[in-house]
Amino acid sequence: MINAGLSVSGLQHVGRLRGEIALSQFLTRSLREMGRHPLQSLVLYTQDEWKAKPAQIAQFAHEDGRAYVGRRLIDVPDPFGCHANWVDHYWQDFGGVLDRFAPDVRIVTTTQAYQHPEMQALVRDLASRAEEVRAVVNKYTATYRCPRCGNEGTSSIEKGKLNWRLEWPALWKVYRVDIEPFGKDHATPGGSRDSCAEVAQTIMHFRPPMGIPYEWVGIADRGKDLGDMGSSDFLGFTPVQWVEVGDPEVLRYPYAFTPTFRRIVLDLSRVDAYHDAYDRAEEAFYSSERKGDEDDQARAFELAQLAPPPKRKPFALSYRHAAFLSQISPETGRLEWSLNRMRDTGILARAPTAAERARIARRIEQARVWVEKYATENRVTLLQAMTPDVAAQLDDRDRSALRTYADKAARAAWTEDAIKDSMVSLTKAGGLPVETSRFFRDLYLVLLGSERGPRAAPFLAVLEKDWVLRRLHEAAK
Ligand SMILES: [Zn+2]
Question: Measured in angstroms, how far is the CA atom of residue 75 from the centroid of ligand 1?
């Protein structure tokens, strides 16, 4: 039994997919490949106290949430009124798609655990040995707070909910946990987990599970680190938000690749970069000659897969290309139009399989949502025809620069890399009559009608080469 636990104290963020879900699932799967029959399970701490932290209180728009301080999480109402209680509401955006990140996870709540006959027998036994139990637990009382629930461990065992120092080992015992990943806050030597391991041995007389500590996942906004994701602080984003912008495997990949002791920081404005890393790992997986850390990339890619990967490397449409295709394509027949454009521009050299078509369609849709919700700087609308207004903003040197570039581009292969090289060779060598920044301003102006735009090479690569050249020449007249 591989088990992890989490408290449903608020936002169920993707950071919790790291150790509690993905790491446990990698272990479960690897053990199965070795011929074992492990179960993956997850305990939801629903009996923990609702702390009335500011972000929790702020969830209640129509009443004063402070009234619920001290209640069990399961007894706090849903602030939005659409579910039976607080737990059900916040579990929705995690549990609702959990199968897509790790199939067949058995979920138990601590509310259910306390109804388990074995748990009830254990609670009765501990109550009958109250003095002995208290002596051990008091050794630690108030020395450490439980990092998960924030409780300090002074409540008595007779109240129907065990002190967390007893509850944790009791759950190990009742659910026969063998391996348990846990967040690094519990892991300090002599800290909360050590104390629970001692309680398991001295009071409950069993061997505690093997523990695997892991680092937290941080959240950043456009490169600015905002700290670790936090449930009761409502900091982070949910698995439901992720699946709008990417496949589960793409997020599982950094969880498989990054050593467990190293922090990971996620930033929704960088979803394109996560896809690039995933696509590179896919290349490495199918490559016969790997160098550097490509063996690790390939193994992590393999772990990140939820279905067996195809024999032959499938075509991968760059996420950034998908973002632009999603915007310049017509709404009806978007996939066919995009496939044609990909063939014209040399991005796609062969007829895609059904699975590849589905993947391309998915990426186009995901990247479209990403641009709209998290990366509006990648919004583009093509200037359908040159306008007098745009022409008036170009002087002789601007026109000359565009003509010079058009000549260079005409000889370049129409791929992202070749386009980038052709630009760099001009700007680095001082081959243009205007400053580099002015050149890009000119380029965006004649293609988009505005002075700014997305990174030029990936954007140009999805446009028709002839269309671009015609426009450059028309503007340079
Ligand atoms: Zn609800």
Answer: 14
pLDDT, position 144: 54
Q: In the CATH hierarchy, which top-level class contains the domain 219-374?
A: mainly alpha
Average pLDDT over residues 228-251: 97
Alpha helices in 287-415 (DSSP H): 294-304, 319-328, 334-344, 354-374, 388-392, 396-411
Beta bridge partners of 221: 224
Q: Does domain 388-476 have CATH number 3.30.230.20?
A: no
What are the structural domain ranges in the chain?
A: 2-217, 219-374, 388-476
Beta bridge partners of 44: 6, 109
455-469 average pLDDT score: 92
Query: Cα–Cα distance between 42 and 181 in angstroms, integer?
Result: 11
What's the gap in Å between 90 CA and the centre of ligand 1? 7
194: confidence class by pLDDT, cuts 50, 70, 90: confident
Q: Write the pLDDT tens digit of every residue in 96-117.
A: 999 999 999 999 999 999 999 9
- Per-residue pLDDT of 5-62, as tens digits, reads 999 999 999 999 999 999 999 999 999 999 999 999 999 999 999 999 999 999 999 8
Does residue 223 come out as left (phi exceeding 0), alpha (psi in the -120 to 50 range) or beta? left
3-class secondary structure, 217: strand
Helix axes 416-428, 396-411, angle to 10 degrees: 130
At residue 148 the predicted structure's pLDDT band, cuts being 50, 70 and 90, is low
- What distance in angstroms lies between residue 357's CA and the mean position of ligand 1's atoms? 36
Span from the CA of 473 to the centroid of ligand 1 (angstroms): 57
CATH class given for the domain over 2-217: alpha beta
**CA–centroid distance, residue 46 to ligand 1 (Å):** 16
71 to each of 35, 189, 449, how far by Cα in Å? 44, 31, 58
Calculate the CA 221 to chain-centre distance.
13
CA–CA dist 218, 143 (Å, integer): 27
**Same topology for domains 2-217 and 219-374, yes or no?**
no
* Cross-strand partners of 214: 183
Distance in Å, CA 446 to ligand 1 centroid: 49
| 79 CA to centre of ligand 1 in angstroms | 7
Whether the full predicted model's pTM is greater than 0.70, yes or no, is yes
Task: Calculate ∠ Cα 257-96-25, nearest 5°.
Answer: 30
Ligand 1 center–CA 50 separation, angstroms? 17
Judge whether 33 and 55 are in contact, CB under 8 Å: no
61 Cα–ligand 1 center, Å: 13
Q: What angle do CA 84, 89, 91 make, to 5 degrees?
A: 120
Rg over CA atoms, the chain: 28
Q: Are strands 210-214 and 224-228 parallel, antiparallel or unpaired?
A: unpaired
CA distance 9 to 44: 10
Distance between CA atoms of residues 393 and 391, nearest Å: 5
